[in-house]
Amino acid sequence: MFELMQTPVIASLLLSVAIGIIGSFMLINRSQFIAAAIAHGSYGGIGIAIYFGLSLLFTTTLFAIFLALLLAWITYRDRYRSDTLIGVIWAVGMSIGIIFVDLAPGYHPDMMSFLFGDILMVPQADIYFMAGVDLLLLISVLFMLPRFLAIAYDMNFALLNGLNTRAIYSYLLILMALTIVMSIRSVGLILVIALFSIPPFIAEKYVSDFRIMMLLSGFLGLLFSLIGLYFSYLFDISATASIILVAATAFFGVILFKKGA
Length: 261
Fold this sequence. Notes:
This protein is mainly alpha-helical. The protein has one domain (2-254): ABC transporter involved in vitamin B12 uptake, BtuC (Orthogonal Bundle), CATH 1.10.3470. The protein contains 12 helices and no strands. Helix 2 runs antiparallel to helix 4. It is globular and about 55 Å long.
């Protein structure tokens, strides 16, 4: 069992770092819909990679960064009133992926793993990529946290204080895109937003300091992942779905507890 679970546990630990950082920024920026558009739209990069025989990780990363920059340009002025354009990008990205997969010769049995993930089968190359993205996230937070918080809470005030808000906002979406790509094999494009949204939501209910919220979010993400992995081993069920259901149970539990308190 230890050898079987070694890679999933490492992947869970690396995911928890990203959940704590990017999940928390997604929450305070209310950018879950933008993140979902990047996640689902990234399927286009997967389809292109399969059709042309390119590296899946490299091609999907470039495609996701392109989507992040496009969405940054669209939503910079008013990120809360661009729902239609965000939805169109979401649908177009997935459609591109579907068409290229259909046109690609041969049978591709692992396509479902990109949509729903399989944390038990994460390749070693993805583990290295996840570690690299985590390192970038930690460095970015170390040097840019005040700037990220400034554009999250009051974009206009940050602009008046001389910050290059467009560049900071675009960079944050690029980090979001890299985080989504690193999570594809583990969680999948469909379920990734739930895992990145639930731990920060719970953490925000109990702490007010943003730094502590990031730490608590990361801890909860790791806890949900480990419990989900245990249940998947115990009942021989999908590990990713088990993790999401564990997180969702905690989510609804907190809602009911807070409502009854």
